[in-house]
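Example 9 (inverse folding). The structure is encoded as follows.
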């Protein structure tokens, strides 16, 4: 007889549409149907990031290249919400978070004051 022990295959964080839906509700109180969310993951070099989105000071604290995941949602008022997160490619930890509404930054990392 053989016995096997099951162990977790990864301790990486997982950022998907369900995570975004929960985050949008907890941060802005908006209910998001998961079918209405689009997302993608992209690897960027620091110099490819617009400094109006992530300041040079913040960029210098992040790894190069940056593993990003971007989520987009258009709400019932036809306002476009965009969340870009930077993830540590080795352990999956969330390193940076920036929320935009209609092309304007409304929140950087959860510690800032939110605007809506």
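The amino acid assigned to each position is listed next.
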């Amino acid at each position: 007889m053989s016995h096997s022990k099951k162990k977790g295959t990864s301790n990486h964080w997982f950022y998907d549409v369900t995570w975004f839906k929960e985050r949008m509700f907890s941060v802005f109180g908006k209910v998001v149907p998961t079918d209405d969310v689009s997302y993608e993951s992209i690897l960027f070099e620091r110099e490819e990031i617009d400094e109006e989105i992530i300041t040079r000071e913040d960029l210098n604290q992040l790894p190069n290249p940056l593993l990003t995941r971007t989520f987009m949602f258009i709400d019932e008022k036809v306002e476009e919400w965009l969340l870009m997160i930077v993830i540590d490619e080795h352990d999956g930890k969330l390193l940076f978070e920036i929320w935009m509404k209609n092309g304007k930054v409304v929140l950087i990392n959860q510690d800032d004051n939110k605007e809506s």
